[in-house]
């Protein structure tokens, strides 16, 4: 029986401890989802054998008969599950997929969408209202509906006699499409007493006519479906406005939290699993701490006060250094996928962090052989300089991925974007910045091409303007050239002053 006490995963999710006994999903789930459920229940990393044993106790089986083998095949590196340097499997509790899987398993309540308030069908004897005839005109008067009934409906809704020209003018001003034109000869040919014509050629409704209920039912039958759709549109317009207001509040809160968030970039060489030296970049203070000998690493004190730790294989790096990875929000700069099929023969390209860095920001890490020689020869000066240069390159790469939500894979004929989830709530977002510039009619300052310089990131800034193309996509046009800049070439962007136009 698992420990029912609160665990880190449930505490981060803000949910009570979850026990799978007696709360099995109502329908079959993928084996990978079962793996996530077992990790949520435990709340801490587990071996693959422990996960398999827990699932077997719940009655979960695999087609191969070997649950450990099937679990490895079902996972194959998918998020939010990770495998650390100890061989343990754990969860990133901030991943959105976990809540979705818990809801699908019936372990969290599903959010209910507010229902549209139903528009009750009118009774047959209900009078025609002004809204009825306005909707009838806006949606178009069917050719199958007689002019007599339309005229009677207008007279009843307005509640006063009208001349023939007044009826034509009132309907014509509101008619969205089609034609409606009463002619004197047509009015004289009406055989019903529903509409009377007096000596002054004014039309009035006869409330005692036996044809009045039939007219009302016909108008209501034609108008009611449109009233239902109108109510739905108004409902969702209100709902969207409410959601936009809620999201604006959330965005402001996230921006405030992001402004007080502290980031550290950690880079170890030659590898995160077997390091000999490292560098710690305090992003907000733009200061470096180099450790050419990790024996001088100050332990957990070096990361005190930081909310986010960024790096390549950062979880394993913290484990090697004896730090607790779960005390910080981690951003792993490793490649989002390992290989890319490049031809029909099945040839694959190995995707590395260095390959993505060159494609995204035009920078790369130091040569591993040269770094190893610095370490072997004890050349601390050159090693420290190389560590600082690597940290600057990784910072530019991380900044690009945060801004765009993706990194560029450029190799030979390949030029693709690979999505990454490095952006935290409140972090800069290229699309939101472009929308803000468009909505406020403000210019931009952009840095394009390679990564911005470290001492003065905006030294190469260029003025630009946001516009929408014929497909509604946001584009950037440089003020000092006639060419548009592809968004993937933008390295940094910020709002400039208001745009002035000549009168």
Structural features, described:
With 503 residues, this protein is α+β, with helices and mostly antiparallel strands. Among the domains are: 8-104, Arc Repressor Mutant, subunit A (Orthogonal Bundle), CATH 1.10.10; 263-408; 430-498. The protein contains 15 helices and 19 strands. The protein has helices at 8-13, 31-42, 48-57, 67-75, 96-104, 130-139, 147-158, 164-174, 184-188, 212-259, 314-320, 353-361, 368-377, 380-404, 430-439; strands at residues 81-83, 89-91, 162-163, 195-197, 202-205, 263-269, 277-282, 287-291, 308-311, 329-332, 339-341, 348-350, 406-411, 414-419, 442-448, 462-468, 474-478, 484-485, 490-498. The chain has a five-stranded mixed sheet, with helices on both faces. Strands 18-17-16-15-19 form a five-stranded antiparallel sheet. It has a three-stranded antiparallel sheet with strand order 3-5-4. β16 (462-468) and β17 (474-478) form a beta hairpin. α7 (147-158) packs across α10. The longest helix is centred in the middle third of the chain and has 48 residues, at 212-259. The protein is elongated and about 115 Å long.
Short account of what is shown:
With 503 residues, the protein is of the alpha+beta class. Helix content is 38%, strand content 18%.
Q: Main β-sheet, in a few words?
A: 5 strands, mixed
Helical amount: 25-40%
How far from one another are the termini? Answer: 77 Å
Rg computed from alpha carbons, rounded to a whole number of angstroms: 34 Å
How many individual β-strands?
Answer: 19
Low-confidence stretches: none
Name the strands of the widest sheet in spatial order. 8-7-6-9-10
Report the principal-axis shape. elongated
Q: Supply the number of helical segments.
A: 15
* Structural class estimated from helices and strands: alpha+beta
Strand content: 15-25%
